[in-house]
Amino acid sequence: MNESILKPKIICAADIEPADFGKLVERLNGTIRFHITTGNRRTKYGLPLNRCRTHTEILGWILQLSGKQWMTRAHVAHFIRPVCEVQGIRMPMI
Prior knowledge:
Layout: H1 3-6, H2 21-24, E1 25-28, E2 31-38, E3 41-48, H3 55-65, H4 73-87
Antiparallel strand pairs: 1-2, 2-3
Helix pairs in contact: 3-4
């Protein structure tokens, strides 16, 4: 049995290429907007930065967004980094 299949991949913000940021997430007029591509369809999903002011609110959004079929680990990493930056929250590193 291949053991790598059984182990979840742990990802951190450093694993995501900064060049990918604009392709997945953007800051625009007080919102964070996700760029979503499913098949040949492209769309955007936005949420207001004023609802992402604390670690608790950011975690709440991550939990809510994790239920979206289009949400990827890269989207999560690219969401956390700019939100923490804008709100002046120190990003936790493990």
